[in-house]
Structures are given as structure tokens and as C-alpha cells.
Amino acid sequence: MDDESGGILNISLSDSETEEQQTPAKPSNRTGQSEEEFQAVKRTYHVRIENGNISEGISLPLGPNPNKMLVQQLIHAVEEHYFFRRYEEGIKLVEKVLGGEDSATLDESIKNQLLLYKSFCHKKLDRIT
Q: What is d(CA 44, CA 41) in angstroms, rounded to the nearest whole number?
């Protein structure tokens, strides 16, 4: 059998497929910033150093739609109280958030995480006393 005569493996591609394959894709701009813009941002950037007082930077109530960064800061504040063995402060912060109007604006997973840290703080307090 002759391969050029149209056997089962003799498949031709349509013109649109060959044109798509021949046109090279132009590279995308991954940074979206010029060098000058980057240098301007770099000059104004300052590292935030947390030294045990994250909860002081949180203003309660959080508001109707707290952004992810604010919610993460709240969780980190409770974690920080637990880490530095300030269990009463951690419990008070969780109760203040979940007992007020912020409770309705927080996701269930965030509420569960805050309640988990509250229970950890209670367990540590029970061991101490």
C-alpha cells in the first residue's frame, strides 16, 4: 500500500489550523510595570515590623465588608495574643469581634478559626489556674 495514496494515516490539516500554528504568539507583559514605576514604588516601600501589638492597629468594628487583609490581621492579632501568652486579651478580642456587629460580616470559616483560638486560650488559662 502506498502512503501517498490516502491510507489511514494520511491526514491533512485544514488551512485555519496551519495558519494558527505558523503565527508566533507575542510575549505577554508579565510585570505590567515599567522600570521607572517600579523604582518609584521601591523608594516609597517600607517594611512593616510587627513587634507584638498587632491588635492595636485594628479598629473595631471592621465595617460592612472587611477586606481579606483586615480579616487576616485580626486572626494574626488573636494568634499573637496566644503566642505571647496573653490569653485573656485573646479571649476578649474574639468576644468583642464575634459579639458585635462584625459577626454578621465574617465568613463562617473565619468565625470558626477565631472560636478555635478562643478555646485554646481557655484551655491554657485552665491549666495555669
A: 5
Q: What is the pTM (predicted TM-score) of this model?
A: 0.61
**Residue 31: all three cell numbers together:** 510585570
Cell output for 125: 488559662
Place of cell 505571647: 84
Residue 64 falls inside a structural domain: yes
Contact residues for 82 (Cβ-Cβ < 8 A; gap 6+): 90, 117, 120, 121, 124
Domain count across the chain:
1
CA distances for 33 relative to 36, 45, 67, angstroms: 8, 16, 25
Report yes or no on 113 lying in a domain.
yes
Query: What is the per-residue pLDDT across 49-81, written as a single tens digit (0 to 9) for each?
Result: 777 788 888 888 888 888 888 899 999 999 999
- Output DSSP code: residue 25: P
Hey, how many other C-beta atoms are within 10 angstroms of the C-beta on 122?
13
